[in-house]
Structures are given as C-alpha cells and as structure tokens.
Amino acid sequence: MDPILFIHGFGSNDKQYQPIIRYLEQKGIENFYEFIYDSSVGLHPIKTIAKELSEYISENVKEENINIIGISQGGIIALTYLKFYKNKNIKKLFTLCSPHKGSRLAKLLNLPGVIDLRPNSQLLKELETFAQSEKIDMYSVYTPFDLMIFPGWNGRPKYGKKKIILAPAHPVAFFWPATKKFIYKNLFEK
To answer: CATH code at 68?
Structure first.
C-alpha cells in the first residue's frame, strides 16, 4: 500500500484527521505522513503553503508514489501542489469538504490565504481548469449542510468521483462513518 499524506485545514492541526488515521490503522494501513503548517491566521497564500508542502515531501517522503488526503483548505493546498510543485507520483487525491468553488465566508477576512478561497478566485479557477484537463484520480466528500464552505454545494467539484454525505456540519464530516468508508474503499480501487 502506498503511503498516505494528510493535510489539515485552515485554523486546524493534526488532530483534525486522527479519527481517519485510527480507522485506517484498524484496517491494517500504517504508512502515514502528516504535513502540518501554520494555518492559524491565513497570512500565507495557498501557493506559498503548497510550495512548503513540496519541500516537505522532497525531504520526508522516500516512496515514489503517495496518496493524499486533504481536509478542507488542505484539499486546495494539495491541488495547488499538484499544479505548480508536484515532485512525486500522486496515486489518488481525496478532498474532504474542500471549498473547490470557494466559500462566501472567505469574504469576511482580507488575508492572502483566505482570499484564495473566495468564490471565483483566480487560484480556484486555475485549479478547476487544471484538474479537469489532467484527469487526476480524485475523490471528494462534501455535505450540503456545510456552513464553513457556504453554500455547502461549493465543496462539490466538477471533476473526480464525488460522495455526498449528510453530516450535519463541516467538522463532523471528516470523521463521519460514510467518509471513512469512502476513503478506505477507494484507496484500493484500481
């Protein structure tokens, strides 16, 4: 099994995806990497964080192939890495409640890392075009009840395999049973 690299979301840390790691460990998967970045204030543009991700992967990931699970903003960071800085073969990309079409809440903060997450931002437009043209093996989970990615449908990309879940809120969706099952099932799908 190729290793899995986790990327947390805005204002979060590695605790955000620990329930998923525990679930996968119970299923016998044990090879994980964790990219932890300063996401507390949104001072850094997504491209800057994606470049840091590229450096982290170069320095820490020895395997040639990896899978990535990006949570919320972490999914957008992963896509940005794939477009601008890719240095490994990414087998599969999972995005969990990532604002593929932006979030109206991002209009509330005028910070570089948040501006990138606004609906119709230049970065999100570039990523959509890139993902559609590259045919990335991508899997996305989203919930219509997501109030962080407002409206919740903005977490549904135009590309890749999608799973709608009825989790009642953004942070609950990450460890929702259907989310964990979707990840596990699709990690092994050819």
So the answer is: 3.40.50.1820
> Distance between CA 112 and CA 48 in Å, rounded?
10
Give the pLDDT confidence of 115-131 residue by residue, as tens digits: 999 999 999 999 999 98
Q: Which of 54, 136, 155, 41 is nearest to 95 (CA)?
A: 155
Left, alpha or beta for 93 (phi > 0: left; psi -120 to 50: alpha)?
beta
Nearest Cα residue to 53 out of 20, 88, 21, 24 = 88
d(CA 130, CA 151): 23
Total domains in the fold of the chain: 1
- Bridge partners (DSSP) of residue 89 are 65
The pTM is what?
A: 0.95
